[in-house]
Amino acid sequence: MDEQDLEALADEIRRADATVAFTGAGISAPSGIPTFRDDGGVWERFEEGQFTYGRFRSDPVGFWRDRLELQRELFGGEYEPNAAHEALADLGRSGHLAAVITQNTDGLHEEAHEEVRAPADGETAILELHGNSQRAACDDCGFRIDGDEAFERAETGELPPTCDCGGVFKPDVVLFGERLPPAVLQRSRRLARESDVFLAIGSSLAVEPAASLPRNAAARGATLAVINLEPTPRDDDAEYVFREDVTDVLPALRSAVESA
Ligand SMILES: [Zn+2]
Fold it and tell me: Do 62 and 118 belong to one domain?
């Protein structure tokens, strides 16, 4: 890790009015959550067509059966926030992180922030572009329940799990064929535009909106840092590129920010 770069970036974060972190699957991989594109990955055993919004509407029973199987594959183990999630949560607690925008649906940012958040501390906004699989929401009235409860009800024969209003519960994630939630997307774009430092973490930054958020932030004068094992299309726009493990870089960055 380039110590000089790390110190310089930490200094910019300390002086920034708003630092925004954007995260992708690479931040959760160290927690053991399989990524979609890995060899032997979960998606070799499933097809996108099983989890479209259209299928949820037309065949909710089949959808939920397949979804239960996917859930066991994806989240069957006990997944915990890792050192990278915790470092971001700590930066939030010490007032150095305005927002985390994530593409992940595992809910690990929420968990990490809940663990460190004390009542008097500053709030870090957590924006989940693709939703959170630890919740389920009624597709008709929007009523939310715990994801575990929905899966448990489905597993014990309530197929599909149904709301008191008669609507069907849907995992609170963006399904294939569904749009990203417009309000979350709009707020993410605004945060990116208004950020002074934009940290792009564990994302290939190849597909929208992951591609345009860092680009727009940099175009508006934000300092862009890319932390990802593989090269990304945004590396050329970045002042800092750390091609290293997120669980090494982020704790080191937190220490550098907080040591001054
Ligand atoms: Zn309902």
Answer: no
